Write the structure tokens for this entry.
Amino acid sequence: MRNGMKFSIIRSFLFIVFFSSSAFAQSKDAVKIIVDKNFDIQRAAETYLGNRNLWTYILKANHLSGIEDIKNGMTITIPANKVKNAYTEISNAKKSIKDALEMGAKILAEDLLNEAETYYTKSISEASNFDFESSFSSAKKSIVFSKRAYNQTKEIREKTVDAIVSYKKGTLQKRISSALSWIPAELYDNLREKDIARTLSQSNAQITFYDLSQIKLNENSQAVIQSSRYDPLTKKSNSKVKLEKGDAYALLQNSPRKKFVVDIPGVKTKINSKYFWVEKGKSDTKLANYNGEIELEAKNQNIIVGKNQGSVIPDGGVPSQPIDLIQPPVLSSPPNLSLTNELNISFGWIKNTSAKSYWLEIAKDLEFKSVINLVKNISDEQTKINLREPGIYYWHVCSLDEKGLPGNFSETFAFAAVGGSGKPFILLNDAKDIIFTNQSQYTLSGKTLSGSNLTINGKSVDVASDGSFNVVRNLNEGKNLVKIVSENLKSEVSVVKRVIFHETDNQLKLINYTTDSEFAEGTIITNSKFYKLNLRTIPFANINLINAVTGTNSQAYADSTGYFSITLESESSVSKFDLVITTQTGLSNKFYFEVILDTQPPGIQFDDFSKNVNSPNFLFTGKSDANLFSINNEQVLLADDSTFRYETLLKQGLNIFEFKAEDEAGNQTIRKESIFFDNIPPLLIDKIIIKPKGKNKTALIKIKAYDDSQLKKFASVVYSINDKTQKDFARLNEDSGWYELEVIDSQYLNIISVELEDYFSNKFLYDLSR
């Protein structure tokens, strides 16, 4: 009986002994269980390891091949703390990576973050193989790297007032708003609001804003940081840049909390794109968009520039209708992954008949972060460039149309310019910086300097006499960081890093980005026509949302961490959606959602109660069809029949209660009720007898009283005339605030007592006979 067996026994309480360090030194935190007839291995796994599916680990830890090997009376050892420590550290590593990502380490500390993610992936794989000691160690290493990534990024960003220079080649200058002269701008220099940055000839620079959006200035370009604001309370950022001359590429982090605007004079822009190019010429502005949409509005006219489209905006004029960008040419020479001893390189490509000119970009890295040359206005299908030093070079070409709008760049070619230097180099046959595979193994092959020492992640690799190598690597699920080092006899080194994503069906999940819990398919109840999902899945996946009723669809793309957001639009009271995840290698999974649009707020019904009371103990009872119910922000549980009961102690005077009912869709009903509590009788302030004047034989008894609530209209007065006791009621004069009673005057007129009462039945008899 193995995985398929049914566990019919659901209850066991066993004789448990915890090992002390002296009794069981090699596993002091293990648990010893003496098996009896009621033993349930899944229950034991759930109790001591926190996961009933780890019952197979209990078998392995006890060197048992199957459940049938468990016998009554035998001792089972469960290394509980080892497992707990590993999973705790994995959770800590996950949080540490998340913190680093939110700080911006993906941009400002990418190498350290890659190390952290690689060790994290490794720790999960080791835990799944029950190697919990190694898993714990890998998770700790992940935390070390993610904290270093976090601290490095934090240090840079804390110095960032509005924006920083995150990369530069050649000459970059800045001018602060109050200065007349230009000064050099160095790496990680701050750029504040109203500062101007410019590149000179054969120079380029990258400016990173607080929200991690980036502007890449090409040569002879000038930009003004018009505004860059961050609100720490709402965590919203708002940045605005104006390109005064030249051209630039923008790589944005636009989201509901991050707004980035490129200012085009006379044009209102709404950017829903993460990657585009803009150029400011003498009389116009050109825009080429490579992702999402950019809305342009001028003189009451709107156009939307979609993906792989462009527009020309004359100064003071109306943007042109969207123009489709033309395709890049096919590269030819130098061939991909080729070697040459020359440094004067002839670059060539196959002619694109639609192109009026070409741009050639050459970099020292595959992601083109370190661009060494951007050659523009090439009219032919070839050009010659003299490289200054040996090394590995990456290049690509884009086509420009008759309007001067650049399309996407071509695929990237790589070559090694050795130049007879004897310096080591590494050329991989797969020239992608990120490699995707759904196989558990991947073959790394390429060429290096013949006779050099080659290592991959610290392990030596055989190199053939011609410098070629071929290595099969086992992959962990998820992200795998590969570091290849080639070293010659002079200890000169060349280093290449690659990221390999091993995609599996197990990763095709939806995770709630906020709670980090699995997002199950089913019913979503909302009070808005638009419901936004913030989720995480396998990195770089394509997400297709299909309205199952109307057939309309929308798309999103997961980023390098797997995060994406997508909005469900309800067309009716009940809308049905299919969400399809497709990975880079073609793995796919479908999720189903039903969205119920509910705009009806929940009700609140009260049983009868008095709003004026003289007892401090008060009880509210009633009924509500809410999911969440609170009184004065204190959660009140509703009974199964939706009734509530709330006892409270009133303070003297006015008591205000706010009742809030909220349903599953987020609809709210708020009601306020006031209860006046008064248990103090009226206070006697003064008493006087006004004797008559003239022939009038009537005296006036006046009583002054005060009460927090309201005095009754009459007060009982006992008085004596010539030693004869009389009783009557004094009437309250609303204008004067005195109780008044007319009586027959006498030399021997005296007030014996007054009984005062308010409308809360609080009363007191004041003895005035003394």
Observations:
- The chain is about 10% helix and 45% strand.
